[in-house]
């Protein structure tokens, strides 16, 4: 039995799994309090990304554009950045943090965004906005490099780089969650609370599961403060849950501020959550409390039934963000399932060296393939033309038509999940996430059996 | 007509000329908001780009085509699966999108070989599809790839395929509207006249500026089929590539969305002498008037009248049921472009709603002019609105419902106002007689949603009503209606199917024998 890692052979992309870098920076930017990013490029790069994130979270939030038009594309568009900063600060008096996020067009033109920031700091900020706390920072996000995942990774690093400042050592840790849902952040904070550990959380996006109130309070913002970002330099350790969505920031903090880092694993499933808690305990000296023993037991009690009796040997394809895909694959293996195909949607050459992928290659006891730089055609082509048989697909909404057209049940997980209600609210991490995921998979398969009148629909009881 | 200055925009004086309030007895000679100017950077406008105007709005609704974007993967991903332009070929154009995946090395050394490889790969992966459109994006426009030349090469190598090239990078113009124009002109220049259609009727049209949102085009096609009219092509919803190459053989261009597609009609008139007839599929009266005009043009008024009579008899009592319950409800009509004038007047007339504001993201001054002239006094008209202005307008106008896009809709929701998706619809289609009732039904469902009503209650200080275990929409909407309306034996609630499209697709039509050989349009 073998597990191969292969890159996509075709040059082009048929149905992309990922979007481009600036989308990652935009998602990171909405996690910071009093922050509105300006995307320096054409308006589409913002308008559609805002739409996408808002379809996923079912919320609105603000991101601005420098609105590059033809003249700017020819003669350079730094004047548009200057004007955008002025307009934005004038109209949003609470805004303190303004990342300037470049795109493919403004990187090709070669606009000197760092230069214009210096100019603005010495001119506009010193004069018109004297006395106001404003931080401008450049985020270089050429979209012809990497993907939304690397864009997020770079953006976290750029935030940390801008603000991290050595001061008194603190008992806090820094938790870089990676590109997750409000429900995940809530669950992670719950675990920290039970462990009595305080953290600078990058990013506090729990607030995006926001209420509809009689007061008509309508502002949605992330809540990671400049103070939190500053303190990352003084934390006991940086915990990066998703290696590819925060690893660069941890490296920076280690090199520059000597903050030790703990990279992964993504706490998906019981085992990886155990590891996460153990690492937290090692770093902070805090014991794992009985309460979490209980919580773990509740999750296991729910999962134990369905795994060996039902989920065992079900064949799964998983696509999306690399840390999520690997974490899900690991959990599926613990559930006795067979991840047959993993699709990692960009050309990051580091994936092949990832120890978790190496471990899969050494240990899985069924035929398995991992495709890097993948698109959805890698999945569909195998099903349509190459005889790949699957019982289940795990991934985000953009792959929905494969599930629909080939009649393969699918559990939505990752980003975006716009075609299902409320998924942003539920965690996939921690013990609660493990139980939720296992039950979602089981229920989805049950439903499918009933629809297709497969053997077990006759009497599904245990 | 006084310009309206938003508090939030006092610091950007040029915005002042982008909003007006229609005063009593005023016409348009006083003032008109400025339109289609460069966007003010940092204002958090809702505009998109010219690539999306070309590819997403007009290009991709074409159904039997590989739609490939030449650039990094983002533009493609972002404009994929966000709009409900369905088709009767299993939605190929919705399901599949293609990107050449331009990387750094291509930016440095050029991406033409990459493009060529991509084209071949795409045709190989989908051997049954023989048509392709290629869209330029910001990056490939800036590095100067010659897409036309590559397309030509491939067409020589693969004689059974045909490729259309659309050079409309994101930065080409203030909004998506620039892209509408570019793709209109590119299509007529490259493709119209390259296929000769079989003419099967005495009455031959192109249906232009219609994107088949949730089946709108198929609803309208039903009327044309019932009138014995041959629809050579639809530009572009549910339209086929080769049908659109034959546009030059129509006797009449029937134009729906003038904002996005009048350019090609005007060119077809100039080059082939085909007249343009502006029609409107939204609303009973506008639609009846449109069918009459088409009937009149071809001398088949009787066929139009038969449809109008049948449909009106069937659906008018249902429309009126809603009208009674929507009377006086305040609407912000905030779509993208032309719907502001398609809808402004007719929702007031036929549904009893009151339009308190119109806005357009990418319309031109002409759209505003039509929009304002069709809405009533006191309405606030905004060009290229932004986030803060929208909120301020909601606070000022206190609408009961807002017709807008998904994300601004979330803003409205938090302000306690339900929204209806003006671009993709909720339970459409909204065109046709039945569609118009469906629209009224969706508005009613939004305004009288018991859940929205509950969201206004502050349980910490308001009196909590404890006498009901539930409330229906009807309990809310009928509470203040006179009994003769409530008990009217003719009026009734919508009773159509959840999805009317499958029935339409299964329908057969009477054959109207052709009288004479097809007249040849002037070249
Ligand atoms: S690929 Fe470039 S133009 Fe397209 S969305 Fe990404 S940054 Fe914008
Ligand atoms: S109806 Fe509106 S969104 Fe649709 S094409 Fe016309 S202007 Fe664009």
UniProtKB/TrEMBL annotation, chain A:
Enzyme Commission number(s): 1.18.6.1
TM regions (residue ranges): none
Pfam families in the record: Oxidored_nitro (PF00148)
Sample GO molecular function, one term: nitrogenase activity
Residue ranges of every copy of the Nitrogenase/oxidoreductase component domain listed in the record: 20-445
Keywords: Nitrogen fixation, Oxidoreductase
Family per record: Belongs to the NifD/NifK/NifE/NifN family.
NCBIfam families reported in the protein's UniProt record: anfK_nitrog (TIGR02931)
Protein name per the record: Fe-only nitrogenase subunit beta
Protein source organism: Rhodomicrobium udaipurense
Lineage per the UniProt record: Bacteria, Pseudomonadati, Pseudomonadota, Alphaproteobacteria, Hyphomicrobiales
UniProtKB/TrEMBL annotation, chain B:
Subunit structure: Hexamer of two alpha, two beta, and two delta chains.
UniProt cross-references to Pfam families, sorted A to Z: Oxidored_nitro
The family this protein is said to belong to: Belongs to the NifD/NifK/NifE/NifN family.
EC id: 1.18.6.1
Nitrogenase/oxidoreductase component domain: residues covered: 49-447
Annotated protein name in UniProt: Nitrogenase protein alpha chain
Cofactor(s) named in the record: [8Fe-7S] cluster
Catalytic activity: N2 + 8 reduced [2Fe-2S]-[ferredoxin] + 16 ATP + 16 H2O = H2 + 8 oxidized [2Fe-2S]-[ferredoxin] + 2 NH4(+) + 16 ADP + 16 phosphate + 6 H(+)
Matching Gene3D superfamilies: Nitrogenase molybdenum iron protein domain
Gene Ontology molecular functions: ATP binding; iron-sulfur cluster binding; metal ion binding; nitrogenase activity
SUPFAM superfamilies: Helical backbone' metal receptor
């Amino acid at each position: 039995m073998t597990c191969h890692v292969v890159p996509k052979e075709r040059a082009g992309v048929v149905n992309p799994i990922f979007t481009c870098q600036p989308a990652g920076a935009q998602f990171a930017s909405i996690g910071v309090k009093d922050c509105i990013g300006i995307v320096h490029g054409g308006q589409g790069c913002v308008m559609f990304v805002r739409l996408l994130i808002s379809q996923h979270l079912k919320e609105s939030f603000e991101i601005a554009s420098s609105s590059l038009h033809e003249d700017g594309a020819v003669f350079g568009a730094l004047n548009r950045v200057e004007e955008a900063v002025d307009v934005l600060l004038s109209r949003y008096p609470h805004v303190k943090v303004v990342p300037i996020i470049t795109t493919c067009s403004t990187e090709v033109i070669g606009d000197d965004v760092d230069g214009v920031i210096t100019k603005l700091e010495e001119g506009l900020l010193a004069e018109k906005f004297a006395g106001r706390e404003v931080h401008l920072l450049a985020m270089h996000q050429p979209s012809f490099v990497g993907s939304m995942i690397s864009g997020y990774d770079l953006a976290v690093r750029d935030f940390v780089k801008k603000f991290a400042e050595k001061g008194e050592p603190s008992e806090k840790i820094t938790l870089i969650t990676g590109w997750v849902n409000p429900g995940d952040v809530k669950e992670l904070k719950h675990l920290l609370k039970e462990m009595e550990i305080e953290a600078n959380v990058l990013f506090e996006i729990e607030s995006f599961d926001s209420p509809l109130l009689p007061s008509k309070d309508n502002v949605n913002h992330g809540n990671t403060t400049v103070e939190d970002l500053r303190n990352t330099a003084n934390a006991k350790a940086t915990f990066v849950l998703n290696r590819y969505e925060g690893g660069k920031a941890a490296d920076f903090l280690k090199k520059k501020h000597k903050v030790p880092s703990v990279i992964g694993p993504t706490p998906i499933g019981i085992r990886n959550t155990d590891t996460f808690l153990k690492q937290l305990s090692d770093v902070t000296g805090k014991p794992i409390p009985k309460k979490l023993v209980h919580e773990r037991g509740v999750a296991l009690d729910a999962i134990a039934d369905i795994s060996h009796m039902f989920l065992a040997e079900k064949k799964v394809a998983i696509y999306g963000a690399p840390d999520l895909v690997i974490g899900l694959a690991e959990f599926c293996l613990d559930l006795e399932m067979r991840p047959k195909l993993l699709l990692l949607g960009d050309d990051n050459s580091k994936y092949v060296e990832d120890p978790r992928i190496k471990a899969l290659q050494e240990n899985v006891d069924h035929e398995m393939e991992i495709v890097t730089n993948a698109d959805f055609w890698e999945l569909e082509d195998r099903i349509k033309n190459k005889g790949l048989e699957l019982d289940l697909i795990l991934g985000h909404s953009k792959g929905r038509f494969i599930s629909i057209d080939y009649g393969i049940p699918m559990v939505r997980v990752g980003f975006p999940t716009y075609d299902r209600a409320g998924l942003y609210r539920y965690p996939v991490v921690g013990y609660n996430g493990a139980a939720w995921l296992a039950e979602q998979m089981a229920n989805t398969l049950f439903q499918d059996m009933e629809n297709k009148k497969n053997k077990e629909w006759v009497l599904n009881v245990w | 007509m006084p310009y309206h200055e938003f508090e939030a925009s006092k610091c950007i004086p040029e915005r002042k000329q982008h909003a007006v309030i229609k005063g009593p007895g005023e016409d348009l000679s006083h003032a008109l908001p400025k339109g289609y100017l460069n966007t003010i950077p940092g204002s958090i406008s809702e505009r998109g780009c010219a690539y999306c105007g070309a590819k997403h709005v007009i290009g991709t609704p074409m159904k039997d085509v590989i739609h490939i974007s030449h650039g990094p993967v983002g533009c493609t991903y972002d404009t994929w699966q966000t709009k409900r332009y369905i088709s009767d070929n299993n939605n190929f154009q919705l399901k599949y999108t293609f990107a050449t995946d331009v990387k750094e090395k291509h930016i440095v050394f050029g991406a033409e070989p990459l493009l060529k490889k991509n084209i071949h790969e795409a045709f190989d992966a989908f051997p049954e599809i023989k048509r392709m459109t290629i869209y330029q994006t910001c990056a490939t426009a800036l590095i100067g790839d010659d897409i036309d030349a590559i397309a030509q090469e491939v067409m020589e190598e693969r004689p059974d395929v045909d490729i259309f090239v659309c050079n409309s990078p994101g930065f080409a113009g203030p909004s998506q509207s620039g892209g509408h124009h570019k793709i209109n002109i590119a299509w007529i220049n490259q493709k119209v006249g390259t296929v000769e259609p079989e003419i099967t009727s005495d009455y031959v049209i192109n249906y232009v500026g219609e994107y088949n949102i949730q089946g709108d085009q198929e609803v309208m096609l039903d009327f044309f089929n019932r009138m014995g009219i041959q629809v050579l092509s639809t530009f572009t919803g549910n339209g086929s590539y080769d049908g659109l190459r034959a546009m030059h053989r129509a006797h009449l261009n029937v134009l729906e969305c003038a904002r996005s597609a009048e350019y090609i009609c005007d060119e077809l008139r100039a080059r082939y002498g085909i007249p343009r007839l502006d029609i409107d599929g939204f609303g009973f009266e506008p639609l009846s008037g449109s069918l009459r005009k088409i009937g009149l043009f071809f001398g088949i008024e009787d066929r139009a009248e038969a449809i109008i009579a049948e449909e009106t008899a069937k659906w008018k009592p249902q429309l009126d049921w809603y009208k009674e319950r929507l009377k006086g409800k305040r609407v912000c009509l905030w779509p993208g472009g032309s719907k502001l004038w398609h809808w402004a007047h007719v929702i007031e007339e036929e549904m009893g709603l009151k339009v308190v504001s119109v806005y357009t993201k990418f319309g031109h001054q002409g759209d505003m002019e039509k929009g304002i002239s069709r809405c009533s006094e006191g309405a606030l008209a905004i060009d290229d609105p932004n986030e803060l202005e929208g909120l301020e307008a909601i606070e000022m106008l206190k609408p009961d419902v807002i017709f807008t896009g998904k994300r601004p809709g979330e803003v409205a929701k938090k302000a306690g106002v339900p929204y209806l998706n003006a671009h993709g619809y909720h339970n459409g289609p909204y065109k046709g007689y039945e569609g118009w009732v469906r629209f009224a039904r969706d508005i009613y469902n939004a305004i009288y949603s018991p859940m929205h009503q509950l969201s206004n209650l502050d349980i910490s200080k308001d009196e909590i009503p404890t006498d009901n275990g539930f409330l229906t929409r009807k309990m809310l909407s009928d509470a203040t209606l006179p009994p003769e309306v409530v008990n009217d034996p003719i009026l009734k609630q919508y009773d159509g199917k959840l999805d009317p499209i499958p029935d339409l697709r299964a329908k057969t039509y009477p054959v109207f024998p052709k009288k004479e050989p097809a007249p040849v349009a002037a070249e």
